[in-house]
């Protein structure tokens, strides 16, 4: 594999659409649901910074290190967040699923496990990834628990690995899923989604 190209992925609850500036207004509405940019331990764009964040992600896509998506809830057609394949290493291939956020009103609704099922299926079954990584802040207990629920294994903690906009040093928890673990992870995600029907 030499590149990871934009693709639309459609599941039971969400459609992951290749990110564009056309998503701007819907993403501003989504980030206002819960005022997510005020969370101190993560970096979620404020409404006035959304256009710049979309541009940043698209520039990383041009460089080949990110494939960004807007997350659209199928039930009502509203945009509920963003997610990406990032830190792409096309030579292996390997990706990280990250820079993800979901509107407060979408959390716990099935949109996140559906998104993860779509991304992981594409990574392992289409792209042939050797591993898929997840990273989150040590202080983001909700995210850490959600990643562990997927069946990802914690690889370690990178202490003082990055600096947040407020100057705080961030400890990053690293998780991964390997190809031999994917069938079990997939079965777990499918079971979780089936329970919502």
UniProtKB/TrEMBL annotation:
Residues 15-153 form the N-acetyltransferase domain. It comes from the Bacteria. InterPro entries: Acyl_CoA_acyltransferase (IPR016181), GNAT_dom (IPR000182). SUPFAM superfamilies: Acyl-CoA N-acyltransferases (Nat). Pfam families: Acetyltransf_3 (PF13302). PANTHER family: BLL6696 PROTEIN (PTHR43610), N-ACETYLTRANSFERASE DOMAIN-CONTAINING PROTEIN (PTHR43610:SF1). This is RimJ/RimL family protein N-acetyltransferase. It comes from Arthrobacter russicus. The lineage of its organism: Bacteria, Bacillati, Actinomycetota, Actinomycetes, Micrococcales.
């Amino acid at each position: 594999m030499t590149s990871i190209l934009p693709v639309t992925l459609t599941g039971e609850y969400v459609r992951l659409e290749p990110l564009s500036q056309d998503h701007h207004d819907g993403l501003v509405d989504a980030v206002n649901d819960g005022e997510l940019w005020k969370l101190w331990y993560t970096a979620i764009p404020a409404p006035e910074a959304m256009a710049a964040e979309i541009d940043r992600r698209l520039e990383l896509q041009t460089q080949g290190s990110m494939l960004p998506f807007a997350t659209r809830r199928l039930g009502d057609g509203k945009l509920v967040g963003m997610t990406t394949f990032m830190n792409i290493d096309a030579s292996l291939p390997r990706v990280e699923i990250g820079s993800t956020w979901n509107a407060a009103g979408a959390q716990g609704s099935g949109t996140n496990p559906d998104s993860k099922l779509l991304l992981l299926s594409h990574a392992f079954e289409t792209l042939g990834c050797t591993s898929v990584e997840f990273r989150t802040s040590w202080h983001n207990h909700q995210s850490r628990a959600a990643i562990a629920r997927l069946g990802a294994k914690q690889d370690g903690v990178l202490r003082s690995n990055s600096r947040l906009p407020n100057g705080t040093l961030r400890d990053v928890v690293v998780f991964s899923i390997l190809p031999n673990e994917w069938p079990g992870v997939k079965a777990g995600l499918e079971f979780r989604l089936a329970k919502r029907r």
